[in-house]
Amino acid sequence: MSTTRSEALLGGLELFRMRLGLARVRQLLSALGNPQLAVPTVLVAGTNGKGSTAALLASMCRAAGARTGLFTSPHLEALTERLSLDGRPISDRALAAAIERALGGADALDCQPPTYFEALAIAAFGYFAEQRADLAIVEVGLGGRLDATNVCEPVLSLITSISLDHEQHLGTTPAAVAREKAGILRRGKPAIAWAGTAAVERALRQQARESGADLVFADSTEITTSTPAGASPQQVRLRTGRRAYGLELHLAGHHQARNLAVAVLAAETLGGGAWPSLDETAITRGARACRWPGRLEWVDLGDGRRVLLDAAHNAAGIEALTAYLAARKPEQRPDLLFGALAEKQISAALPLLAAQVGKIVVTRPPGERAAEPDHWLPAFEGHEVHAEADLSRALEAALRSAGDTLLVCGSIYLIGAVRTMLRKRYGRPS
Questions:
Q1: What pTM was computed for the model?
Q2: For the segment 165-183, what is each residue's pLDDT rounded down to a tens digit?
Q3: How far apart are CA 313 and CA 376, in angstroms?
């Protein structure tokens, strides 16, 4: 596989592992003229749903006519997916130039180079400023308080659902995780969160009081769906404190209706301020237009078979996936291709998934952090399981033995690689 210029530049930063902290990023951005302060920014944190919520809000902003930047991570298939403007991914040439500026700043300051993610965050802020975006929707990478994206001064902060993930960095209780995520709140600025539990709500309220942010909770939004369970698109009715909406949502799963509620409240907040064109019409159009691949994404292979792709990489994600499968009540259970990173503490959730599927193939996602297939075998004890470390052979085996439906889930790196393989083999997905 050929390597793009951007990938080659970032490949040299793989030695610089995750380093939580803002000092170095601020120093590098200062040398570039502080582009993170040039564009009004919405910062989105959370354990699950932050990418979907960011994509929904960006779609609504575009529908309102705003020149909208979107920064998300990780990517599915191409690095350039991470930065987009008005729904169009950045070119590799422009991304490479932005990364080179970030690395050049480090050389000029004679300081340690940024990490892989820091370089991308710096590139995103610089690109959005250079392109004179009206608004940037920026997804936090890890946590919030010490994440590289937190160097901006958001006009609005969003926190999606919170659960345990990256415990070694963020804490071992949902409340502790919530406190880290709440590091994106700003004094005197609005914030919207989905609490989900009383413990998380208490933690977020306390952090909002300490930071002086104006925090409201999307949990009070009335949400009803009028489509059969598991169907897509969903017909979602939301009632906020301002108005009622009837929205079409092409993101599957009831959890996406919760993400939609956060995005709608965010759009209302922005629309009540500097973006009055972000009205009910823009919200409706944006919700309907939004697509977010790799999250309960159905792929028709064209021969009567279908593949369901879902980046369920932590316990909460697996619970949402199993709820979706249970709601659909298919006549035949899908077979499963699964692989995840070794750091993920998800073994306790996998028996719930195993109960919803037929034959199981476990494999190794791309990347050195991936777990070997045998790592997951105890969690699937009592089920028919085939372990195959080579992903190409694993997909071939899963497709060969599967019935009408194959479920592929786990690491987003697995989903992206399988998505590429399916497109090359079957011409799908687009």
A1: 0.94
A2: 555 555 568 899 999 999 9
A3: 13
